[in-house]
Write a structure and sequence with these properties.
mainly alpha; 3 helices
Amino acid sequence: MRTQHRRTVAGGLALIFFLPLLAAAAGPGLAPPPDPQANASPVKPKVRTEPLNPGPSSIKERAGIVVFLAWMWLSIAVLLYVLRLKKREADRVTSLHPSASPSPSRGGPPPSHGL
């Protein structure tokens, strides 16, 4: 049963990875043919006269970036805190019931799965 589960998971992962590749390979064949009138008269690109400056252009955009970064760091901190609480709870439960989960590295018998 475990082998069948592994095959199913492996097949699903292969489908997830190879399906986009197959779609990309079939993409050009599915595209409509190019319009010949579009190539007849080349369009000149517009020339930009104002300089391009990277970064936020207004105080509102700058504040939005700061708020976004603060929100992301706060989310990461909260998730790490919850993870620490889960780890402490798991350590507490295993210390209360050491015989419930014997470890092979400690010389305990290997766990049986009802077989």
